[in-house]
Write a structure and sequence with these properties.
The chain is mainly alpha-helical. The protein has helices at residues 2-15, 22-33, 43-53, 85-100, 108-122, 129-144, 155-159, 163-178, 199-202, 207-245, 250-262, 269-274, 280-294; strands at 71-72, 78-80, 182-185, 190-194. Helix 10 (207-245) crosses helix 13 (280-294). It is elongated and about 70 Å long.
Length: 306
């Protein structure tokens, strides 16, 4: 299961085009493991989680945001305004009540989609909202009792393979909401003349979000998890076979397996030069072992973090 936690962690950062440091990676793995905590979702709890995953102490917050934030495109044009701080705080109280509501009657998939996308639309923090939004999928699923403790569905790993569809869902909400704001761009930040009514954020039709999440979970369960488990089995078999036949450092064996699998069953000339101290015939044999233990290589034979 640790492999799935790492896959989900690295994919969640990759969605935002970030490469986590070792400490960031470990903190996010621990965050995902907290999804099964039997505790109420509150501002205090969310602040604690936000503090654990942001880049540095300067990004840590003590409460929900108290000032307006906004998102921009790469060319610095505003793409989205989340609700004004006072409206956001009122909406978050309703969001918390919805997430903590445990009585039967609310479809689990609908609840996971509304909780996770509702969170990112409200954007209660200045930083860390997107990763917490995807974390909330795990939190709702874990609290439902449908999954055993410590079992996760690698949703972010599948989202990473469906980025255009993911962005389309987010844009379908952000674009019409942005036009409800009246603002003027200044040099440093927008000058807001009128903000959107809070109802625009508290009540939204979540068909797209539910359909998208259903597709991601379906792909994760039907494809991603079987592929990653197959990769692990192949990796263990190849590692054991190489280790029995050759006396090489374990880190080199591990790297060579990843390189060959990441290059469709071939060890490139560049990589061969990197391992020039290993005889050519040994490298050839290692490639042969890897392909034999994994089976015929294919374009999708390696999982997200292989």
């Amino acid at each position: 299961m640790q492999y799935l936690y790492l896959s989900e962690t690295r994919s969640s950062f990759a969605i935002e085009r970030e490469m986590p440091t070792g400490s960031q990676e470990e903190r996010f793995v621990q965050l995902i493991k907290r999804a099964s905590e039997k505790t109420a979702v509150t501002e205090t709890w969310l602040v604690e989680l936000q503090n654990a995953i942001v880049r540095d102490a300067f990004s840590q917050e003590n409460s929900y945001r108290t000032k307006q934030n906004w998102l921009t495109y790469s060319h610095n044009r505003i793409s989205y305004f989340p609700p004004a701080p006072d409206d956001m705080r009122r909406a978050m109280h309703g969001w918390e009540a919805f997430v903590n509501y445990s009585s039967k009657g609310v479809d689990l998939l609908v609840k996971a989609a509304c909780a996770s996308f509702g969170f990112v639309y409200l954007h209660p923090f200045m930083d860390g909202n997107s990763r917490l939004h995807r974390f909330m999928i795990h939190q709702v699923l874990a609290q439902s009792g449908v999954l055993e403790d410590d079992i996760i569905i690698p949703v972010s790993a599948v989202i990473m393979k469906n980025i255009p569809a993911y962005h389309a869902v987010l844009t379908k909400f952000s674009k019409p909401t942005r036009v409800l704001w009246d603002y003027r761009r200044d040099d440093d930040e927008p000058h807001i003349i009128n903000s959107a009514n809070s109802r625009s954020y508290r009540f939204f039709q979540a068909d797209r979000e539910v359909i998208f999440l259903h597709r991601m979970i379906e792909q994760a369960v039907g494809q991603e998890i079987p592929n990653e488990l197959a990769y692990l089995r192949g990796y263990d078999k190849a590692f054991g076979a190489i280790d029995r036949e050759f006396d090489l450092p374990q880190k080199d064996v591990s790297s060579l397996i990843r390189m060959v699998k990441g290059n469709n069953g071939v060890l490139s000339n560049h990589r061969r030069k990197q391992y020039a101290y290993i005889p050519e015939q040994v490298l050839n044999r290692i490639v042969e072992i890897i392909n034999a233990e994994f089976g015929a290589p294919g374009p999708n034979s390696e999982p997200t973090i292989g």
